[in-house]
């Protein structure tokens, strides 16, 4: 019995070694597609399979690899100079890390570049080292954050979509007068506290704040009082236990009509429909400012593609990206993933995001401000502390002052390291 | 006689040797590597330089680290004391001739069989859904919100830690109690010792070795508390329940401060060793006195 097992293990090890060796062989051209997002693995795999069938006769095979903790793995592989042929990742710090290592091919001459929405391409440039304007990364799918609202309740109460902060406040008043709860907050999961911040900051912070803050020319304390003030105002209209409600529980409560609005993103919608299939939800841009022109939809690059410039199969890797960018395939992806496309003319038509799709198609979008904060600046924890102080009845002005001061302090600490 | 003494079976050396090599490979080397990187500015990948003691000096200026230490010590002291008191009571009760003794022993040991992350998730649900529902029904304000979302979140974690941690300490006390010679009790009974007096004068002193082990193991374990917190509060609200281990993980891997948090880990190691050695010294002296 035991001997059998030993032989079995040996055979397995041998078999795997053979596989590895043949994998490196010259006969099939195998390309690695490294993806940092676990949620879209199925959708990517479908498209990869389609690409592979098209190129079967040439012996080309793209293999999708979606490891857990992908960001760290990619960085270690970068250190070992073992860069995947094609990479799919978010437009965040991880991308900055890969791009600044100088291992990516310039995709600026590819035919699909002209069909990419400029605002999203700009977001990719913005996170590149020195904001270099070379298309090392191609934005593919995008997300959106704003106010999710219960459409049926809005109709019941005769409410219109607010375009300004004052209109927003009167909407809140009407909801409360009708005995309903305006907001469901889920601050037990700290990251959800970033959503209102990310929606308000682009509308209210001074232009060029992120650069000026990085250069130490301005502070949060000088510029962000209004945002913090409005943040606390929102909390005043949340359900009683907003500090103790988790994301999953809150989504369920919202989907079952316990609150009229929730500040989060398109990624939460699938959870709502899981909890209540008949739930009628839509989304609008957060009206943080009284100037409607400034109220952007918060939308960032959720998936972008980039290609290893030293790949043995560089042309094939580029061809794969071109394949993905074809409108049919981009459309298939966003429909399955409930996302938005960076390709012009590919529009998300689902009614659940009706309220923001026009702004997104017109490029009236602002990136998530926390994409520009330094790695290690844990704003979510600071917001959670401010919210906790608020529930403890701390003086509003004092709370805001303390919060902004610690924002500056922590920002400086993480900016140095 | 002499020959016999020398002739230790080589299998013993092999056993110790293999374990020693494995321990060195998988524990000591990685530990030494960590110590090494604590003197650099390595981010976990890429280039690095030596920075001397900069990381260590930074620890004393970092308010997050200091508040994490305060939390960790508060947590460890409260848990160590409560766990030992409760375990001792449980062990004494389970050692007496109560009915269904073995069944009850099994029940008390059950929490220890569950992983602390599972226990954390279960209590997360209880705190978030069951207790507030009961609290609202009874109209008690303090119970109608999730305890883990308030400034008292630490007590929720302490409760869960004690609930799942008592089993192991109870087991050690039980084995200690069972090793006490019944003759001693008989003699004490003849002299008229009863109840609490019997416990303070006979049982507790004779339990000294178990007490030492339990105190040291509990303090060491609770100073390094990690999984319950990750499962229950993720260090929040704010950073109010962030222990040192949680801080090291979060900032070291997620925040790009790998080498700085390595320095933090080295400091934590020194603190844990110092506390353990201090406890051993004091408690062993006590054992000697009693013995």
Describe this structure in words.
The complex is a heterodimer of chains A (417) and B (291). Chain A is α/β, with parallel strands linked by helices and 417 residues long. Chain A folds into 2 domains: 28-143 and 300-357, Periplasmic binding protein-like II (D-Maltodextrin-Binding Protein, domain 2, 3-Layer(aba) Sandwich); 145-298 and 373-416, D-Maltodextrin-Binding Protein, domain 2 (3-Layer(aba) Sandwich), CATH 3.40.190.10. In chain A, 47% of the residues lie in helices and 12% in strands. Chain A contains 18 helices and 11 strands. Chain A has helices at residues 2-23, 41-54, 70-79, 93-100, 118-126, 151-156, 165-177, 194-204, 209-214, 220-223, 225-236, 247-255, 269-275, 314-325, 327-337, 354-361, 379-391, 396-416, and strands at 29-35, 60-65, 86-89, 137-142, 145-150, 261-265, 281-284, 297-298, 301-307, 340-341, 365-366. In chain A, helix 8 packs across helix 11, helix 11 crosses helix 18 (396-416) and helix 12 (247-255) crosses helix 13 (269-275). The longest helix of chain A is centred in the N-terminal third of the chain and has 22 residues, at 2-23. Chain A is globular and about 70 Å long. The termini of chain A are far apart. The two termini of chain B are 33 Å apart. Chain B is built from 13 helices and no strands. In chain B, 32% of the residues are buried. Helix content of chain B is 77%, strand content 0%. The longest helix of chain B has 33 residues, at 63-95. In chain B, helix 6 crosses helix 7 (153-178) and helix 10 (208-223) packs antiparallel against helix 13 (258-290). The model of chain B has no long low-confidence stretch (mean pLDDT 88). Chain B has a single domain (63-290), classed as MetI-like fold, CATH 1.10.3720.10. Chain B has 291 residues and is mainly α. The A-B interface holds A 72, 75-76, 78-79, 101, 187-190, 240-246, 249, 375-376, 378, 381-382, 384-385, 387-388, 391-392, 409-410, 413-414, 417 and B 41, 44-46, 62-64, 124, 127-129, 132, 144-151, 233-240, 250-251, 253-257, 260.
